[in-house]
Amino acid sequence: MAAPLVLVVLAAVTVRAALYRSSLAVFIAERVEVASPLNAWKRVVEGLALLDLGVSPYSGAIFHETPLIIYLFHFLIEYAELVFMITDVLTAVALYLAIQDFNKVVFKKQKLLIELDKYAPDVAELIQTPMEMHYIPLKVALFYLLNPYTVMSCVAKSTCAINNSVIAFFILATIKGSAFLSAVFLALATYQSLYPLTLFAPALLYLLQRQFIPIKLKSKSFWLYTMQYASLYLCSLVVIICLSFFLLNSWDFIPSVYGFILSVPDLTPNIGLFWYFFAEMFEHFSLFFVCVFQINVFFYTIPLAIKLKEHPVFFMFVQLAIISIFKSYPTVGDVALYMAFLPVWSHLYRYYLFYENLLQSCILQMLHSHLRLCNLNSAPAFVLRNIFILSCVLIFCSFLFPVLWHLWIYAGSANSNFYYAITLTFNIGQILLISDYFYAFLRREYYLTHGLHLTRQDGTEAMLVLK
Amino acid sequence: FQDQAEQFFRSGHTNNWAVLVCTSRFWFNYRHVANTLSVYRSVKRLGIPDSHIVLMLADDMACNPRNPKPATVFSHKNMELNVYGDDVEVDYRSYEVTVENFLRVLTGRIPPSTPRSKRLLSDDRSNILIYMTGHGGNGFLKFQDSEEITNVELADAFEQMWQKRRYNELLFIIDTCQGASMYERFYSPNIMALASSQVGEDSLSHQPDLGIGVHLMDRYTFYVLEFLEEIHPASQTNMNDLFQVCPKSLCVSTPGHRTDLFQRDPQNVLITDFFGSVRKVEITAAALSLDRDVVGLESKFPEEELATEPLKYAEQLPVAQIIHQKPKQKDWHPPGGFILGLWALIIMVFFKTYGIKHMKHVF
């Protein structure tokens, strides 16, 4: 499997190198969808130039990178393009190895459950075979490296690539089972941008599962392990933050980085939801709504942890997606990271049956969240039913972003509402994508244990709906 | 003979220039254009040719669609005096009258493509009359309702002119509200300044014409124009008479003047030194030897100030010197402690994960 991966890597590097040399590089680097105030390359250069002039880069609201990035780029600024290409390659390789390991784990678990007779007898077509799982790691690496979002992010030299690579290493360390490394990388990821804090829960669940520790609130070994992991994580976080203090001998970076992420003072338009709301909000309410919006990111962790405690890697995927939709300054680089995981769950859309009333199902999916049997006259389908529509929505929105930006800013014939509409549609598309996967995944699990043909008590055909 | 010769050299200037600026636009500021044009008329009548006048009018009143008498600008009601005529040469018109253009004209920093008529080509033997009118306030003069020039900028511009030897003597007249504030900051020698009102006072307009519908002139300039109509090229009227023009009873505001920077006594300064271009021609049949002690040339510029070689524009900005004076940029380096700490941590993590026993495989 190494040779195809090397080929993919070479192709990706060629595409990026070609784009670096073309005139598109400048155009892409300026786009707000790719470069946010947190990770724009222009700001990194500005901060380093300020440092050369003897001024703290955090004075003034330009530079919002962490001191470790200062250190990294202080020596590597001439090779910036190489650094970003290597970062992308490292991310892809890390994801490849992680998914390879994960597939082995999944297959082992599946085998165990089959032998323990946990599965219903007629679910043969739902079981994953090693044959189809063989190419999934390569597909993951492919999806990450050749995703136009990643390529654009790399060409724009947005430090989102570095964030993604740290998260990828964290996932690799977690799946390999090393609690120490996983805690260190998670601390690094949290230090870089605050939101990977929510990935603590899925990582913990996965490691507990790996150690065969049952997840019961009363179990002592559960709490012991949790405490160990949490203390590893917190200690490494504290160590990294204290180390950053010694770079510039000041705590300036904390309000500049974390204060900036949490209080969202910069309202440049991006593909997220914060800017429009806060641009039109009265100051009186802005603190309240900032808190509401930020809580929204962290809020889904606990319910998802309760629901998905048997499937922590899927939980991690959903959590990553939630972070990249609801974070304060999202860019397409964040979207690219969770999209790389889509091939891992490609078995969920094997069956393309007919489409039901999409709107009704969307609303139903979004409103409630537990399974119920109901009497609808249709054949069972755990298919990802909206994939076609959603991929169209996402692709369309990606193309409409620069168009409406041009209309708003340059032609003056549109206004911010137009751009915000596309932002909203893009985010709704993403949310529907995630909920579709979530629904299909849970449904598949239900079918695995209860059989493909569901019947009610009176013997009529039944249909699973996420309520 | 020798008295006449002395008088010949008394004033020290050999040519005259005038820069006449009207800074306001819109029809209801008719009077500012009329002010400027009446000074233009007087100055031209007294001998300064169009090539030596830079006339800046911010709006075109003569051809304004609201002018009931097109192609005319009157300064007296009942259409007594048309100051527009057939031979008015406006050098900076309409939107070209900006603070930047004005300062460029004064300091001579003009792009090479500027036509000659738009340049102030004065030298160190030029007497320049600068007349400005419009709306102003305490310390500023408004240009075109969108920008303003401050008294500090004006003073600095005059200092540039002095340092570049662009004038011999300068007469600055301003007719705006609180006009005296504009000459407060002058610090260059050989400047005499007059203003129509003191700080805190408004300059008022003179008379409206009911046929045209706007006020035609400002009071101060109206009375200055009346005063100037009596002057002819051979007049011996001096500046003290100009200072008396428009007392408070007529002008309602108190005109002010400033002569402390001027080296000659205003008593000895002729009006025509500034308002006219009087070539002193003495016809004599006898020969006159011009020795130093006969002529009694007063050095206008003390010896140490005179440059021994002609000053070139480029030499006034020692760019080479500036470049070498820039501080050398010191590069920032991360502190050693940080690097040590970071790499120690990384090595510790590495060892913890892979164990020391693997090290022998690495090396």
From TrEMBL, chain B:
GO terms for cellular component: GPI-anchor transamidase complex. InterPro entries: GPI_transamidase, Peptidase_C13. Keywords: GPI-anchor biosynthesis, Membrane, Signal, Transmembrane, Transmembrane helix. One of its GO terms (biological process) is attachment of GPI anchor to protein. The keyword Transmembrane applies. Coiled coil: none annotated. GO terms for molecular function: GPI-anchor transamidase activity. Pathway: Glycolipid biosynthesis; glycosylphosphatidylinositol-anchor biosynthesis. Belongs to the peptidase C13 family. Heteropentamer. Part of the GPI-anchor transamidase complex, consisting of PIGK, PIGT, PIGS, PIGU and GAA1. Interacts with GPAA1. Interacts with PIGT; this interaction, via a disulfide link, stabilizes the expression of GAA1 and PIGK and links them to PIGS. PANTHER family: GPI-ANCHOR TRANSAMIDASE (PTHR48067:SF1). This is GPI-anchor transamidase.
